[in-house]
Amino acid sequence: MDIKNDNYFEFNFTKDKSTGLYNKTVDDVYHSIYGAQEEAQDKFITPLDFVNNFSTRKNLKVLDICYGIGYNTKTLLKKIIETKYKGKVYIDILEYDKNLVTISPFIKDNLFKKYPEVSYILSSSLINEIYDNKDLLKLLMSDSNNKKFFEPFYRSLMQKFHYLGYSYTPLGKNNSFLHNIYYQCISQRIKRPLRGFKLKNFIIKPYFDDARITVQGMTDKYDIIFLDAFTPSKLPTLWTIDFFNELYRLSKKDCLMVTYSNSAAVRHAMIDSGFYAGKLFDKNNRHCGTIASPDARLIKNKLDDYDTGLMQTKAGIYYRDSSLNSSPQEIIERYEKDKSESSLMSSSQFIKKYKTENNYDSI
Predict the structure, then answer these.
(1) pTM for the full model?
(2) Between the CA of residue 95 and those of 36, 136, 216, 331, what are the distances in Å?
(3) How far apart, in whole angstroms, are the C-alpha atoms of residue 325 and residue 312?
(4) pLDDT class of 137 with cuts at 50, 70, 90
(5) What is the 3-state secondary structure (H, E, C) of 4-27?
(6) Whole-number Cα distances in Å, 205 to 89, 101, 208, 345, 360
(7) Rounded CA Rg of the chain
(8) Which of 14, 92, 148, 266 has fewest C-beta within 10 Å?
């Protein structure tokens, strides 16, 4: 999409002062208004229990599905820096929207002040995409309505990148651009060793296509999977039983997959594809998502009788896309047909029955 013409997303500041996004086409937000960076921490990073589950692994393979502007990957990088993880880190980014990936290293994300290494790692990994999309960056960083959402350091640097043209060759220009980020953000600005890790240990590769197509061509196994797609009811393509079958195929035996969704249909699809699923809780002990793994021992908060019971109602009927190329509307129509033809109890009937049998006033 051409942002100059379509203007299909808009920025906003969330309550933790990090930048959030709203997609006008899908009519859905990318991040919670309470905090984009805080949401990534609560729903995707804290549940990993990184120190206990991953810190001793020689290498890490991460699959970030629906990268957006990168909060899950960024917050994971922050965790890796904090724990001084020494292994190599491979992160595969699946994101249909190349524009979002291009701008992700430069937005105000509530991380730059303390962890400028994060934006440098992303910039150096995505430099070719940044160079190819320089007109977009120039537009956003000069637009009076948008420039407040980008780190001031990068706004001035991008002007030099585009207008002074350090070198006549793209390679020379890119190297100069990265050198300036490294020199001013890391070696000069924070004036301390790079926290015991090597920047060359991070290998980040973006894939710009429908994630359903991309995963079918993948063969590597992953330690961590982030699934952060749009709301299932609005865009069900990445929530089908068939897509979860692919994710299970790509999971190591001790892989952890995390998502914000509490949907009974999503959890049912995960389980029927081979995963064990459990509940996630935020710092206020509220349900905030689902964690899944091929290894049941890695699930700390098991689904309870209410959760498993709900999956056996119409609410637990999952989305289907056997060809992995159906349109969202086709998937929704098939889903609605499955529900209308089902003899399963409705979710409202189940909830009423469950409350009565367990003497609950509310759930």
Answers:
(1) 0.90
(2) 18, 17, 15, 20
(3) 27
(4) confident
(5) HHHCCEEEEECCCCCEEEEECCCC
(6) 11, 11, 10, 45, 49
(7) 22
(8) 148
